[in-house]
Amino acid sequence: MGRSWGRRGDGLSAAPRILAFAGSTREESYNKKLVRIGADAARAAGGDVTLIDLRDYAMPVFDEDLETRDGLPEGARRFRDLMVAHDALLISAPEYNSSISGVLKNTIDWASRQRPGERPLACFSGKVAGLMAASPSWRGGIRGLVTVRSILGNIEVLVLPEQVMLVKAHEAFDERGQLKDAKQQAHVEKLAKKLVTITGKLKA
Prior knowledge:
39% of the residues lie in helices and 17% in strands. The chain has helices at 30-44, 64-70, 74-85, 102-111, 142-154, 182-203; strands at 17-22, 48-51, 88-92, 95-96, 99-100, 128-134, 158-166.
């Protein structure tokens, strides 16, 4: 029998809903490859996973005058709807110039905007997040993860202390986009399982 999670109104158990994405829009992004593997691992651990590509949720650079004039851009509105509908986030975040990528920061900024009738930080408050990064360097994207962790923690997200840092990402994947190293695969699976487990306990 599968593991039971928090109960829904219909009396049936519900798996934790996890929104998975990479903070990159590049077609062959290492972080896109890594988050696909993480999403598969979270499903195997019992999570109800939605894997998206931020390229499909295009948003202009955040501009409060634009928001006042036109409201939320369509991409931001659709992304926020997904955020509200999910319990947890699995993010693979590239490191740009020792920090967070522009597309990920912009996405967070748009999603953080409070809509009429919403509580503050409705997209983030109470969510659980698991963080990963893939980088060609030997640091594995850790400098960018420090920034991502700080931002999410300050907007009321519970960020798991465990994280995955994939070093030498340009050599890490096979032709099918799978990790070559069993230890690296195990690290991803461990994080994904922890994300599902902690989120499920909080939902119970």
